[in-house]
Amino acid sequence: MFNTGTTAFMILSTSLVMLMTPGLAFFYGGLASKRNILGIMMQTFASMGITTVLWIAFGYSLCFSGGHGSVIGNFDALFLSGIPFSEAFKGGSDQYPTFIFVAYQMMFAIITPALITGAFINRVTFKAYLWFLIGWQIFVYYPFVHMVWGGGLLADWGVKDFAGGLVVHAIAGFAALASVFYVGKREDRQSPPNSVPLVAIGTGLLWFGWYGFNAGSELKVNDITTLAFLNTDVAASFAAVTWLIMEWIHVGKPKFVGLLTGAVAGLATITPAAGFVPLWAAIIIGITASVVAYLAVRLKTKLGWDDALDVWGVHGMGGVTGMILLGVFASGAINGQSGLIEGNVSFFLKETAAVIGGAAYAFIFTYVLLAIINKITPVKVSLEEEEEGLDIAILGEKAYDEGAL
After folding, report:
1. What domain range includes position 86?
2. Does residue 266 contact residue 203 with C-beta atoms inside 8 Å?
3. pTM above 0.90, yes or no
């Protein structure tokens, strides 16, 4: 009944996307100060457990059950009721079981709110974060998944997002910026990365997992799958080299963390366009990604925004840039969607309007959500906890035992 090759590919892609969350934990953990390594990693790993509970209970249903042309789905598939484990995906397809699609999309739901945590590192209590994780998914992430990928409002309007430029990176990045404005600055902003090798390991895992993130989003194995795979690597590589050169010129030395950050910017930016644009466009998107993210990070520093790990500059602006460039470079010969360079002005305007509107909604709702949570439990840690570090103050644990031989 099922195509074993396609089923195996989707299982592999799901596993790759799952690996991105530990990769993100290593990436953020390496960038954190030594007193806050476990705090940021705990927030990331917590999403793996809590998001799974939410997804199986009602998240998948709200995203992919009913509600065609609407903002949100319905509760017809609570706890995956009515979906036999042997059911074929897309109502009768003989490719693979629906359950692997459920699992694949769940991995996206896990990593998206975890991206936000790098912005407010060592400033938010764990209890408040758990409330935030639940509320943000229900009122921000689920609606955008449904509207874009679940046959909802934006899909009906003609908006395309191959693997999450709007649905993942733009809304997470601008939610991160809102959280920075709400919780304020760190008392001690002079906190260099505690382990650059850990950042490199995290980047490697993210890059590796991104092949499943983007190529897997074709949801089958064909020529578009391989194009998305290669576009992903090319954009990341050109972005990494571009950042390296820009920072080398700017500060006088080549920076390893800059190279790694540029790669992630390229990965985030190619995400919405990976299966819609030709290879030459992926090169332009990768270079543009680094330029935009680099300038965004410099702007953030100049304006005094304490986005500690540059979530807004890399992911937020990456998602926005990628959606806009998808509107420019989409090729009808590749996946049936033409963009601005082929004369489709309407599609370009729709992509631009959708990502700007989505980013604005995510920013506003996140700020309001944090204010509501603060009425329930304090969002920001005390000055004493921040000075001590969240690893000890909240978790009672240390990443490294300096006394061990």
Report:
1. 4-395
2. no
3. yes
